[in-house]
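Feature request, filed as a ticket because there's no other form

It would be nice if the structure record came with a short human-readable summary line next to the tokens. Right now we just get the raw output. Example of a typical job, pasted below so the devs can see what we mean:
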Amino acid sequence: MTGKPPFPPFTLETAIQKARMAENAWNGRDPQAVALAYTEDSRWRNRSEFITGREDILRFLERKWAKELNYKLIKEVWAFSDNRIAVRFQYEWHDNSANYYRSHGNENWEFSETGLMRRREASINDVPIRESDRLFTWGEGPRPLDFPGLTELGL
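Raw output as currently delivered:
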């Protein structure tokens, strides 16, 4: 893939579009498709793990979604400028023992001129929840357009 619009510099509208595109892709849980949104030499920090390159991203995503079952994510733009976007996010998931979690985090993104992400810094905390406390209740795939975001859910 040579480019992924929208391209920097970002406006509020294009930053929101980019965040929603990322949210939709991650909710699809297809490591191959998600990895294509990153440059070949993309650098990540995800929690305490440091990842470099699309192949490592692919392996990371395969491990992630094998562990974090029924993963559902909502992202919200926090700030943006030129080729950078900051988002806050939460996602819900459960492990193979039916322990449920809501994970809270912040990401800082930096994009190449082609619109591919070349750097991702993610800080994430997991909070155990009861299954009955789940709020992200849509079916498989991307969050429906009429499903509330984080702010609307009071999160």
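Something like this underneath would help us a lot:
The longest helix spans residues 12-28.
The chain has a mean pLDDT of 97.
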